[in-house]
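tmp note - Fatty acid desaturase
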Amino acid sequence: MPATQTLDAAATAAQPSRRVALSATPDDKDMLRAAAELTRDINKARPEIYWPDMLLSALVGYGAMAGAILIDNAWLAVACAVVSVIALYRALLFIHEISHLHRNALPGFRTAWNALVGVPLLTPSFMYEGVHTLHHARTRYGTVEDPEYLPLALMKPWSLPVFLLVALLAPPALIIRFGILTPLGAIIPPIRKFSWERFSALAINPAFRRRPAEGEMKRRFFWQEVGASAWAMVLIASIFVLGWRPLLIAMAIMSAVAIFNQLRTLVAHLWENEGEVMTVTGQYLDSVNVPPPSPFAALWAPVGLRYHALHHLLPSLPYHSLGEAHKRICARLGTESTYERASYGSMTVLVMRIARSTMVRR
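out:
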């Protein structure tokens, strides 16, 4: 039996005791030291990888979306839609890399991504910048101050389908956010404050309230929001020129992208922390790697997100280096290490684990 499957079975069997242990797990200093030492030579973002990957993903995604809208053959249109979902999903997830990029790394990449992907898909980078880093703050992860954490494994069984299905509403919600609330907020300050605090972050914690941006970020975010607002109003106006069909097809594709991302989010962590401050190792073990040979992880967790636990050890490591980093650390620490405990065999195993956890009586 593959090591990841063995670990999956063992983790499921020991789930209650492990849940208690994670909140008080001491740091594994050997693992932390190895992760830092073994990756020093691969910690620079390579423009020759970032730019073609992002541009090709966007080009394929929009081309396939156009095919889904314009082609009359139903089967070909559906095939185009599937390709569009996969490609735009990959292009969109570069927002995660942007949130970690040093301001001097990859000049122009953030601006180009916003112009080609973030604004057209109504998800400009300000919705993640200054938010996602809070999820990586050692004293915030898994607490009520973490915008990207809910103890899903400890909630009621109905919470999981609700968590997934709410993503279907993302496209119309974004059109309302930028096409209606942003213009209204420009003339009615309370609406501006409300939409910024509640609807300006890709957060899953309903208690999270975003604070006002400051300095250079405030200026940059302003222009991103203006661009997204203008595009949202163009989309609304397109109904009167092109009819409903193009917009509905595009929204269906983006709803599928949102569901994909929500499903990936569901299995990015074990969601077993009940609000306690955790060590770096505890955060790592509450996070998930789905390394090779899992055949589909590169599709549902692209741009390095199949190594999400490793990303929590090394948040600034570029996505193209995570696979090599994983190999090096595994070779150094061995199969019985703390590092290996965060590896799982598939999305299915993880979904079943979390679903079973919600059914445990408390």
